[in-house]
Design the sequence.
């Protein structure tokens, strides 16, 4: 069965697995000799679950668990204190929005309309964007950009797949739903933010609500690329991590292209899209980003490097396995050489047919 015909696994088993995983993260961090703050522990649980869901969608459950383990024991959690509680929780909300957008990406390519999944996804994305916006205006804008870019691109790619693969084409309603959520989720997040900000009913019109929600110092800057800023999330060293991240983005793009040629869901392109949004967002980052942005970048770095290792091992394994011929191809037939040619090569007298 092709990947396009499989629905995202969001049943009771997944919910139970996510709950157990979050609980294990809390236990593992709090039993550390120097446990992080409870805010950092909660943010870690959310971030680990989000990375697990995306890594499982890109590869499989094994690599999802590997990414979860690596992120759980990452040294970044020991750096957060109670004074950074709002910042790290806002960053975790951005990662939760990323996981929700990944679910929407998968739903957009399904041949059956997710009549119950799309409304729940809209509510979850709006809540995540709103909470991130409440903690930090820049992180809220980043969450809105991740949601819109992922869902709108998924709608466009699924529409192209509909044109080239009419037999098992994605549902047209899923395309419309993905495009609508790409617009409605940020708008819903803005409403949620203003609701928690207690300014939804006191504003004079909708434009002041939108205008005042943007960061005060939103302008192009290279402060996020300084050595101190890079060292806050490029563990162990930027000169080692950044080339590997570029290699990982290339590998995911190639993997997405391979799935696209097979008319399967190119989930690798989703992670590449997230990396692109974050790269552009770094040019708009304020001078002091707090601990929220490094948390997001650290988690996405673990996700990308895990995907790179998985891609390398899968490629090596594919070279060692002799796959059967695909449909429409015939296996090569080995024919014995004629007896006359064999006799000539060995210097024997020619074979005379009877």
Sequence:
């Amino acid at each position: 069965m092709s990947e396009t015909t499989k629905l995202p696994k969001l049943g009771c088993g997944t919910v139970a697995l996510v709950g157990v995983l979050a609980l294990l993260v809390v236990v593992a961090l709090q039993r550390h000799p120097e446990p992080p703050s409870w805010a950092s522990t909660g943010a870690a649980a959310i971030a680990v679950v989000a990375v697990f869901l995306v890594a499982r969608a890109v590869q499989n459950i094994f690599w999802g668990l590997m990414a979860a383990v690596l992120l759980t024991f990452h040294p970044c959690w020991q750096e957060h204190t109670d004074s950074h509680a709002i910042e790290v929780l806002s960053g975790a909300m951005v990662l939760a929005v990323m996981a929700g957008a990944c679910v929407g990406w998968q739903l957009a390519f399904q041949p059956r309309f997710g009549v119950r999944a799309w409304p729940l996804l809209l509510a979850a994305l709006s809540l995540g964007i709103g909470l991130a916006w409440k903690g930090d205006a820049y992180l809220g804008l980043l969450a809105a950009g991740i949601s819109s870019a992922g869902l709108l691109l998924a709608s466009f790619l699924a529409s192209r797949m509909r044109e080239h693969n009419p037999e098992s084409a994605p549902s047209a309603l899923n395309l419309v739903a993905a495009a609508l959520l790409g617009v409605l989720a940020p708008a819903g997040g803005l409403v949620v933010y203003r609701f928690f900000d207690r300014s939804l009913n006191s504003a004079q019109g909708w434009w002041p609500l939108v205008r005042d929600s943007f960061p005060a110092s939103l302008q192009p800057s290279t402060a996020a690329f300084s050595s101190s800023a890079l060292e806050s999330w490029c563990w162990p060293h930027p000169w080692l991590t950044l080339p590997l991240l570029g290699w990982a983005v290339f590998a995911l793009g190639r993997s997405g292209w391979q799935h696209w040629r097979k008319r399967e869901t190119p989930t690798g392109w989703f992670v590449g899209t997230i990396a692109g949004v974050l790269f552009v967002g770094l040019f708009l980052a304020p001078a002091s980003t707090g601990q929220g942005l490094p948390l997001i970048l650290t988690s996405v770095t673990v996700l990308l490097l895990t995907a790179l290792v998985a891609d390398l091992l899968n490629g090596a394994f594919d070279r060692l396995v002799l796959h059967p011929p695909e449909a429409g191809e015939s296996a090569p037939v080995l024919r014995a050489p004629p007896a006359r040619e064999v006799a000539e090569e060995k210097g024997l007298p020619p074979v005379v047919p009877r």
Notes: The CA atoms of residues 60 and 207 lie 44 Å apart. The longest helix spans residues 292-320.
